[in-house]
Design goal:
heterodimer, A: 81 residues, alpha+beta, B: 722 residues, alpha/beta, Rossmann fold, 10 strands
Chain lengths: 81, 722
C-alpha cells in the first residue's frame, strides 16, 4: 500500500497517528465531527479500543474522544510525512 | 431593570460550579419551555440591583443540531440577555474556543472565564491573559471553579461590561474568499428587514454556508428567499471550485484556524507536563481486561448503596406509615371518609415518600460518576453491548438500576444527552424486573413449582425482561425513532474530584422535584384505585353495621386476648373481602375476564379467574401491593410481609385459585411486562413531559404482556403442559 494513500480511521490500530484527510459522513454527523475538530490536516492519535472492541478512543486537538466504528469508517486519514 | 446573564460553555468546562459560586443558594431549577432539558437560573445582588444568571446546557457549538444546542442558540440570541459569560476550560483551550468564535458573531457584551486554571498549571501551561483579552475583546477572568477563586473579580467584570450594551470588540476573519461571499449573502439578507432583524445577518449567512437546516428554514419563510438561496448556491459553487471544500468544512476550518492561532499566541509551555493523572487512571479503568471487571464492581457498589443501604430509611418510612395507618384506623370513626384517609391517602402518600431515599441515593451516585468523569468511561465500556439494543452506552446504568426499582431508573436517564436515546431508554426501562415484582414471583412460583423449578422460573423472568428490553429497544430504533440518530461522538473528559456540596445539592433537588412533580400523579392515581376497589361496598350501611354487631358480639365473649384479636381480624378480613369482591374493580375485573381468559384461563375452568384482574389493577398502583391484595381477595392472611412464608395465601391459591403451573407462569410473565406501576408512570410523565409517550408506555406494556403471556401458554400447551 502506498505511503500516503488515505484510508478510513477505523483501520488504524492503537498507538497509530495520522492526519485527517476528509470527513465523508453527511448531515448531522458531519457537522458534529467538524465541530469536534476533524478538519483537514488535524493530527490525531488512536489511544485504545474499548474492551468489547468498539468504540475507539483517540486524542485530537489535545482532548480525548470516543467514536463508534460507524463514525470512524466515514473519516479518511493519511499518514504523516 | 434587572441584568440578565447567559452562562455558555462546553460540557465539562466547570460551568455549573461557576454558576453555583456566582449564585450561592439563590437557585431555581425548571425546564426550558416545551422540552425536557433542565433550566437552571439564579441571581446575585449587586450595587446596580439583582443580576439574573441563566445556566445554558453545555454545548460544543451553536449549530442547533441537538435539543441542547437549539436552546442555547436561541437564548444567547435573545435581546433580554445583557451579557454572555463564556466559560473556557484553560487546560483544553483550543476546542473550547470553537464555541467562542460562534458567540463572538452575536456581537454582544461578553466576559470570558478561564476555568480550571489549576489543571493548566499542573499541565505546565502558562497563559498570557492580557493578549487573550486583547484578541477576544472582553475581560478575561481566571478562576478555579471548585474553590470559588476569582468569583469576586468575575462579578465586578460583569457589572463593568453590562453597562456597555454595545457590541463587543473581537471578531474573527474568515479569509478573503469567504469574507467576500459572506458579504454577498449579507447584502441579499438585508433586503428583507424582518429577516435581518431576527438574527445578525452575518451569523445567518455563516449558518447558510454551513448548510444548517434551521437557517434554511428561516430563509424559506422570508420574502427574500429566492435571492438569498440563489446567492448561497452561487457562493458555495465558487468556494468549492476555489478552495476545494464545501461550506461546512471551510467554516469549521477557519474557526479552528482562529482558535489554534489564538491558543498558540497566549499559551506557553513552561517546564515539562507531569505524566497525566487521567492517562494513568485510564490505563487501568478502561483497560482491555480490567475495564469490565472494574465497571462491574462499581455497578455492584452503586446498586448496594442505592437498594441495600437505601432500604433502611425506606423501611423506616414504610413502618412510620404503617403506624400512622394503624393509629388512624383505630382512632377515627369508621366510615367512608376514614377509609379514604386510611386506605387511600395514607398508603398513597406512603407509596410516594418511600421512593425518596432510593432516588436521592441513586441520583447522588450518578452525579458523582458524572462529575468524576467516570460516566463517559462507563458508556465507552458498555456501548458495544448497548448499541446492539439500539441504545447508547449511557443507557446501561439506568437499565441495571431498573432491576432495583424502575422509578429512579427512569430518572437516571437524564445523563443521556440525545433525546432519541433517552426516550428509548425510558420506554424499555420498565421491562427490567424490579424488586417489587420479585415478591410476587416468590409467592406464585413458591406455590406452583418445586423449589429448583421456582428458582429457575424467577431467574427466567429477569432474563426475559432483559431480552424484551433488547428487542423493543431495537424495534423502537428502527421504527418510531428512525433517522437522525445522534452520532456517538463522546468526549472522555479528564478525571476530576467532585465537589461534595454540589453532589448533595443535586441529591436534595432530585428528591424534592420527585415529590412535587411525580408525587401528585401518583397520589391522584392511588386515590382513584382506592375508589374503584372500595365502592359501592364501603357505603353499604348494613354491611358496616353487621361488622360492628359481630365485633361487639366477639368482645362480649370475654375470650383470651390473642383469640379475641384473631377473631376480630377475621371479621375485618371478611368485611374487606366482601367490599373488594363486590367493588367496581371487581365488576371491571369480571368484564375484562374474557380478554384475559386466553392467558390466565385457557381451559375456561377457573371460576375465580376474575380475581386475578383485581390483583393486577392493584398492581398498577404499586407492584408491592399485589400480594397483599391477593390475600384480601382470596380471603386469607398474607402473613408477615417481611417474611415471605405467606403460608395462608399460598394454601388458598393452591386450593381455590385454580392456577396450573402453566397459567401461574403466564401470570408471572404478565406481571413482569404489563403497564408500569404508578410511580414509574409519574416519573415517565415528568421525564418525557408528554402524555402521548406516557400513554404509549402504558399501552405497549399491556399489549406486549398479553402477547408474551399468550405465547407462553401456547408454547407450554404445545410441549404437553396444561
Amino acid at each position: 500500500m502506498s505511503h500516503n494513500q488515505p484510508k478510513p480511521l477505523s483501520s488504524l490500530h492503537p498507538g497509530d497517528e495520522a492526519l485527517v484527510f476528509q470527513v465523508l459522513a453527511q448531515g448531522r454527523i458531519r457537522q458534529r465531527l467538524l465541530e469536534m475538530g476533524f478538519i483537514r490536516g488535524a493530527h490525531l492519535k488512536v489511544e485504545k479500543l474499548a474492551p468489547l472492541g468498539d468504540p475507539m478512543e483517540l486524542v485530537i486537538k489535545g482532548y480525548h474522544l470516543s467514536l463508534r466504528r460507524e463514525e470512524s469508517q466515514c473519516i479518511l486519514v493519511s499518514e504523516e510525512d | 431593570m434587572a441584568t440578565t446573564l447567559a452562562l455558555a460553555g462546553n460540557p465539562n468546562c466547570g460551568k455549573t460550579t461557576i454558576f453555583n459560586a456566582l449564585t450561592g443558594s439563590h437557585q431555581h431549577v425548571g425546564n426550558w419551555p416545551g422540552v425536557t432539558v433542565e433550566r437552571r437560573s439564579g441571581f446575585f445582588e449587586s450595587p446596580d440591583g439583582p443580576v439574573e444568571v441563566v445556566d445554558l446546557p453545555g454545548t460544543y457549538s451553536l449549530s442547533a443540531q441537538s435539543e441542547d444546542e437549539r436552546i442555547a442558540a436561541r437564548f444567547v440570541a435573545d435581546p433580554a440577555v445583557d451579557v454572555i459569560i463564556n466559560v473556557l476550560d484553560a487546560s483544553n483551550l483550543e476546542r473550547n474556543l470553537y464555541l467562542t468564535t460562534q458567540l463572538l458573531e452575536l456581537r454582544r457584551p461578553m466576559v470570558f472565564v478561564l476555568n480550571m486554571m489549576d489543571d493548566a498549571d499542573t499541565n505546565g501551561l502558562k497563559l498570557d491573559l492580557h493578549t487573550l483579552e486583547r484578541l477576544l475583546g472582553g475581560p478575561v477572568i481566571p478562576t478555579v471553579g471548585n474553590r470559588a477563586e476569582g468569583i469576586q473579580a468575575l462579578r465586578e467584570a460583569i457589572l463593568r461590561v453590562a453597562g456597555q450594551r454595545a457590541g463587543a470588540g473581537g471578531t474573527m476573519n474568515y479569509g478573503h474568499d469567504l469574507e467576500g461571499e459572506l458579504l454577498n449573502i449579507v447584502r441579499e439578507i438585508e433586503r428583507d428587514e424582518v429577516l435581518a432583524q431576527a438574527c445578525p445577518p452575518r451569523r445567518l449567512a455563516l449558518e447558510l454556508l454551513e448548510g444548517s437546516p434551521a437557517a434554511a428554514g428561516r430563509v424559506q419563510r422570508s420574502h427574500a428567499r429566492r435571492a438569498v438561496t440563489a446567492q448561497v448556491q452561487a457562493s458555495l459553487a465558487f468556494l468549492e471550485s476555489h478552495l476545494g471544500a464545501d461550506g461546512a468544512t471551510l467554516v469549521a476550518e477557519r474557526r479552528y484556524g482562529f482558535a489554534h492561532g489564538l491558543a498558540g499566541e497566549v499559551l506557553a509551555r513552561s517546564g515539562r507536563a507531569k505524566a497525566g493523572f487521567t492517562a494513568r487512571l485510564d490505563a487501568v479503568l478502561t483497560n482491555r481486561w480490567l475495564g469490565i471487571p472494574i465497571f462491574t464492581a462499581i455497578m455492584i457498589a452503586v446498586y448496594s448503596l442505592t437498594f441495600v443501604v437505601g432500604k433502611v430509611p425506606q423501611d423506616w418510612i414504610a413502618g412510620g406509615f404503617r403506624l400512622l395507618h394503624g393509629w388512624a384506623g383505630a382512632h377515627l370513626p369508621a366510615g367512608e371518609l376514614t377509609s379514604l384517609l386510611v386506605d387511600g391517602i395514607i398508603p398513597g402518600v406512603g407509596a410516594v415518600v418511600v421512593f425518596v431515599p432510593v432516588i436521592m441515593l441513586l441520583m447522588g451516585c450518578v452525579a458523582f460518576l458524572e462529575d468524576t468523569g467516570y460516566m463517559s468511561r462507563a458508556a465507552f465500556i458498555m456501548d458495544r453491548l448497548m448499541h446492539l439494543m439500539g441504545l447508547h452506552g449511557k443507557s446501561f446504568i439506568p437499565l441495571i438500576m431498573g432491576t432495583g426499582c424502575n422509578v429512579p431508573a427512569v430518572q437516571a436517564t437524564r445523563t443521556i444527552e440525545a433525546r432519541e436515546d433517552r426516550f428509548i431508554t425510558i420506554l424499555v426501562a420498565p421491562l427490567m424486573s424490579c424488586s417489587a415484582r420479585l415478591q410476587i414471583y416468590i409467592v406464585i412460583a413458591g406455590t406452583f413449582f418445586r423449589p429448583v423449578q421456582a428458582a429457575l422460573a424467577i431467574l427466567a423472568m429477569h432474563l426475559l425482561g432483559f431480552a424484551l428490553a433488547m428487542i423493543v429497544g431495537k424495534l423502537l430504533r428502527l421504527s418510531l425513532f428512525r433517522g437522525a440518530g445522534a452520532p456517538f461522538v463522546m468526549e472522555l473528559p479528564p478525571y476530576r474530584l467532585p465537589v461534595l456540596k454540589s453532589t448533595l445539592t443535586h441529591m436534595w433537588e432530585k428528591g424534592a422535584v420527585f415529590l412535587t412533580r411525580a408525587g401528585t400523579t401518583i397520589l391522584a392515581g392511588a386515590t382513584l384505585i382506592w375508589f374503584l376497589s372500595h365502592y359501592p361496598g364501603i357505603s353499604n350501611r348494613s354491611w358496616t353495621e353487621e361488622l360492628h354487631r359481630n365485633e361487639a358480639a366477639v368482645r362480649l365473649l370475654n375470650l383470651p386476648a390473642a383469640e379475641e384479636a384473631s377473631r376480630l381480624d377475621n371479621l375485618n378480613l371478611d368485611h374487606q373481602s366482601r367490599v373488594v369482591n363486590t367493588s367496581l374493580a371487581a365488576s371491571i375485573g369480571k368484564a375484562l375476564q374474557p380478554a384475559l381468559a386466553p392467558i390466565l384461563d385457557p381451559g375456561r375452568d377457573r371460576p375465580e379467574a376474575w380475581k386475578d384482574s383485581i390483583a393486577l389493577t392493584a398492581g398498577f398502583v404499586a407492584k408491592e401491593i399485589v400480594v397483599s391484595t391477593m390475600a384480601v381477595i382470596h380471603h386469607t392472611q398474607a402473613g408477615d410481609p417481611d417474611h415471605p412464608e405467606h403460608g395462608g395465601l399460598q394454601e388458598a391459591l393452591r386450593v381455590h385459585s385454580g392456577f396450573t403451573p402453566l397459567t401461574a407462569l403466564a401470570f408471572m410473565v404478565f406481571i413482569l411486562i404489563y403497564t408500569p406501576c404508578l410511580g414509574t408512570v409519574g416519573m415517565i410523565l415528568k421525564e418525557t413531559r408528554s402524555l402521548l409517550w406516557t400513554g404509549f408506555s402504558m399501552a405497549y406494556g399491556l399489549g406486549l404482556a398479553w402477547l408474551t403471556a399468550w405465547f407462553t401458554v401456547l408454547g407450554g400447551q404445545a410441549l404437553g403442559f396444561s
